[in-house]
Structure to design on (390 residues):
């Protein structure tokens, strides 16, 4: 019971923090996070040594859910090409949900905080993990240059992430999926090719 | 003389703040900015109502320099295609300089602060301005779908901006220019076509 309570306070804190980081930005104060989670500052600092560590944990948790949802599943029936395009197809869907916080905040953190901020490591890890997913699929499909293709796809994905909250850009459909398709064509990943 | 002094204090403040936003992140404190600029807090608040306004001014100033440097010049001799590709060719050069702060911080601000943060407007304006540059060049060159092309180019540019400080990604050449070239080909902007 004690263990369960510990877990649920941590989760409640993470949920509240993620929600506020998303709505108010990463500069949101500890006091506001505590109020939103309904816990005391003392309890927060028992779970996380600092707000920066809480942000790091929030990014790690959000990108983990993201990877779980988008890079697993339908592995048997889909071609590597389909699995890659699936990610881009779902970008628009998740753009306005919390799920997006994983990557849009990851890039915000990387470009908006100092080099030794604890959340940088979470953010870089999430990006590396997605790059690895692209690389593995590209290799499976026998891409002409799997390394290059994975870097190209990562660039498109990052651009779409960066746009996630630019209202002027988001108001139109993202061209990310079409560009990704063009890059897959160019690397020789045909839509009919199965593993 | 009084006017000149006012201008130079503002500039000194903006330079110091931009330097710190770049190195320490947008969460850097007012006290540190004042120390770095060698001015008092009182003077800072005489020039800018808040740190958020200072960040907004820093982004506006940096993206203004950026646009001046990259979207003007050689207008008579270059084709629209060359002018577009020039921007991507120079991305790697500026990636580790302050010039980059304009856009990498713009995206960090858009994805990392609340919707009513004063720096959001500066950031969105810079993005719209670059999008307009791409759109005008695409129209000049008679692109098959100038609007789509400008959105595609903006996506690539944003991806490269988001990567500006991801060390793992930056350690290799950015594929942005090659993807941009592919998109220009696909929109019918041939390398030989002059205005």
């Amino acid at each position: 019971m004690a263990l369960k309570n510990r877990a649920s306070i941590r989760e409640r804190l993470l949920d509240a923090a993620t929600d506020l980081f998303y709505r108010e930005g990463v500069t949101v104060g500890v006091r506001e996070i505590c109020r939103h989670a309904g816990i005391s500052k003392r309890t927060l600092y028992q779970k996380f040594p600092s707000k920066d560590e809480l942000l790091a944990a929030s990014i790690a948790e959000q990108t983990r859910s993201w990877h779980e949802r988008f890079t697993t599943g339908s592995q048997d029936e889909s071609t590597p090409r389909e699995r890659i395009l699936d990610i881009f197809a779902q970008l628009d869907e998740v753009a306005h949900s919390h799920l997006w916080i994983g990557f849009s905040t990851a890039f915000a953190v990387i470009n908006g905080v100092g080099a030794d901020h604890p959340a940088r490591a979470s953010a870089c890890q999430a990006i590396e993990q997605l790059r690895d997913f692209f690389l593995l699929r590209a290799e499976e499909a026998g891409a002409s240059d799997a390394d290059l293709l994975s870097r190209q796809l990562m660039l498109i994905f990052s651009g779409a992430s960066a746009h996630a909250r630019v209202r002027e850009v988001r108001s139109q459909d993202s061209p990310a999926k079409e560009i990704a398709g063009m890059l897959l064509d160019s690397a020789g990943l045909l839509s009919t090719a199965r593993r």
Q: What stands out?
A: Chain B touches chain A through 50 residues (CB under 8 Å). The mean pLDDT of chain B is 83.
